[in-house]
Amino acid sequence: MKKRILSVLLAAAMVGTMLVGCGSSSSSKSSDDAKTESSGEKKVIKLGVRDNADQVNAVMDAIEEAGYKVDVTVFDDSNQPNVALGEGSIDINWYQHEPFLKAYNDANGTDFVMVEPKTAAPLFAMYSEKIKSVDELKDGDTIALCSDASNKSRGLHLLESQGLITLDDSVETPTQYDIKENKLNLKFIEADMQVLPQSLPDVAAILCAAAHMVNAGLDGTDYVCASDDAETYAVGFVVRKEDKDAEWATGLAKAVQCDALADYYKTEKQGTMVPMWELNK
């Protein structure tokens, strides 16, 4: 399993100090820290992320102020943070939205749960280097979809909302094989969403989360059309079922609901992630 470890162990006397390394921190020390909160030490939470480690850095002060330390593991693909959660090598992960989590649980027989409160609603859109409007799509054009089930379905629903295809409405998470009508005979390819922006020169359009465009150094706000379902795809912290009400889990989820994270989304993510606490005002 590919992964690189960012050990972020904040001591009370070292506010804002972050230790980043290539190996995992001492398992015995982390275990001891996790069990000795009653003795005055802060809990060390083993947190798994994908390509959003900088998001953790943005809220590190808020996490420490809430009384926690985090030991961060950055994974190289979208399933490994859930695999690690099941294996127990991490306590919690922070990278996925609810439909992705449901699809993973259904496919793998797991019962992971998203902790309340949720963090943010991500924009999802169509991007292209060749067209400015869906009306410019031509017969036989190729569209690049996300390869994972939930985001693939989200992309297909976006195409349907634009009148380009009709889906079998009896299928909860449709694939291209559930397209009942394809007016332009669109063709489809699939790729992991993290690398999907690299397909832009080769296809008529791609369908992906705006944050991944930003991660690729592109303009996440320069889209052809966008979905209106962001709240349905809320991103948040995910734990094993037995930990869903654990004080450390809900405490961490509450701690990151801060101005620092809202500012990070506005500046670093170009406003393509909307904080749930602002969305629900």
Description:
This protein has 281 residues and is α/β, with parallel strands linked by helices. It folds into 2 domains: 3-122 and 232-279, 3-Layer(aba) Sandwich (D-Maltodextrin-Binding Protein, domain 2), CATH 3.40.190; 124-226, Periplasmic binding protein-like II (D-Maltodextrin-Binding Protein, domain 2, 3-Layer(aba) Sandwich). The protein is 29% helix and 23% strand. It has 10 helices and 15 strands. It has a 6-stranded mixed β-sheet with strand order 1-3-2-4-14-5, with helices on both faces.
How would you summarize the topology of this molecule?
Layout: E1 3-6, H1 27-35, E2 43-49, H2 53-58, H3 60-65, E3 68-75, H4 80-87, E4 92-97, H5 98-108, E5 113-114, E6 120-122, E7 124-127, E8 142-146, H6 149-161, E9 165-167, E10 179-182, E11 187-191, E12 205-209, H7 210-215, E13 225-226, E14 235-239, H8 247-255, H9 259-267, E15 273-275, H10 276-279
Parallel strand pairs: 2-3, 2-4, 8-11, 8-12
Antiparallel strand pairs: 1-3, 4-14, 5-14, 6-15, 7-12, 7-13, 9-10
